[in-house]
Amino acid sequence: MIIPRPVELTVRPGEFVIPAALHLSSGPGATRAADLLAGYLGDRPRASEGPIVRLEIAPDELPYEGYRLEISPAEVVLSAPGEEGLFHGVQTLRQLLPPAALEPASAPPDAWRWPCVTVRDAPRLPWRGVMLDVARHYLPPEFLEEFIDRIALHKLNVLHLHLTDDQGWRIEIEGLPRLTEVGAWRTESMVGPAGSTRFDGIPHGGFYSQRRLRDLVAYASRRGVTVVPEIEMPGHARALLAAYPHLGNRAEVSLPVWTSWGISEDILGVHDEALEFCRTVLAQTVAVFPSRYVHIGGDECPTTQWETSPVARRRIEELGFTTPAQLHGWFLRQMQETLAEHGRRAICWDEAEQNGDLPAEMTLTAWRDPAHGVGSVERGHQVIMAPHRTTYLNYAQSTHPGEPPAPPNVTTTIADVYGFDPLAGGLPVAGGNRPGVLGIQAQLWTEFVPTPDHVRYLTFPRLCALAEVAWSEGGRDYEEFRGRLKAHRERLRVLGALRALDTA
Ligand code: ACM
């Protein structure tokens, strides 16, 4: 009943009863995974004898993230070639507990047991991500921690945080105080989709200090989850332009942090100061987030203001370009090079590729139709498959009239998520610097999603289906998955991840 389905799992008779005092042994490199497991078991006192739970790093032909688990009545052995594998094995141990044990504080004494099993397991794809938009609605860091823990439960390994957009700037940047004093707050929010004329009249905002973000990164790291920050540019920039109007194309116009949804023509300028601003922000961002990858946005960037801006015209001439649209790719290339100087790799939303050649080193999040992602792989990129019809969890999950407000005229069911194959047509998995599919990612945009409960509602159980697509090899049987999901829902319920609106 494990989700995502392991490569091999054999159940044998018998069980391992977890004693009141835990005999836990962790070899070199296994301490953090052992601590995580001990926390899931209610941080009980430790013993130095009795039935033992052993975690160890051991050479194996399994990939780095793989693990082996052997549970017998007297001993539990979790071994892996790397720490990531141990973290995943710990999550399997967590799912093998009776669901009542998932809330250790209220678990009855007889919940502490594991069935005897043999597991050999490893992921299908290296990038198994979820994007959460904390720009449209600020979400409290305590909730982000809960969210990270639930991601880890499903062996997903990336939380992509969309930290900046037209409607809010959420990351503290030293030396640029107005980003959070001004850019983090809006006077009200649009009610309904882009183009609506209704507003709620309720101020909204919030931001994360660098110290709090470092804590979040550490919390995620203790679960094998990498937090990948996104600083959106050169479009979706109205919050920063509200703070620093001279970074745009109309310094004389005072723009508020945007209260509408949609695509704004007010984007960053292409003058040196705008580029320097982005470099300053990225330098501080990489100092907070140790992730190999940093996302620089790049989507939905109308270049109309660059057509008339004298600064942009000069830049076009200086670069020998023929159209303002070429500045879009150029802008992103500058920032890709900046990140490379910091030893990092840049990611952008894939549509930026259409406005100028992006270097092969740029990883792309392919959010439109999957064919765009296929094209990007063919042109030599590493691609994270994120096609909106099957991975946008902000879309309604059914046509049920009780569904909360969501983008109009589109639904993404559990079956839709489960049915998408990111490697369809025989696409290769990316590795090293080789082009291919790096992985798959769920997106949760929050224009319609103001609260943690609403995020929980939209995320589960659809994210469980995405996790299985990301982790488990093909040969999918949706009915068989639904059977496991039924049992898994009990775990989600105990964890408070399922909300009453769940009609699926
Ligand atoms: C996107 O949905 N604009 C990435």
Automatic annotation (TrEMBL):
Top-level taxon in the UniProt lineage: Bacteria
UniProt-listed InterPro entries: Beta_hexosaminidase_sua/sub (IPR025705), GH (IPR017853), Glyco_hydro_20_cat (IPR015883), Hex-like_dom2 (IPR029018), HEX_bac_N (IPR015882)
Keywords: Glycosidase, Hydrolase
Protein name: beta-N-acetylhexosaminidase
Keyword Hydrolase listed: yes
Species of the source: Actinoallomurus liliacearum
Beta-hexosaminidase bacterial type N-terminal domain boundaries: 2-122
PANTHER family assigned to the protein according to its UniProt record, in alphabetical order: BETA-HEXOSAMINIDASE, BETA-N-ACETYLHEXOSAMINIDASE
Xref: CDD domains: GH20_chitobiase-like (cd06563)
Transmembrane segment boundaries: none
Class in the EC hierarchy, top level: hydrolase
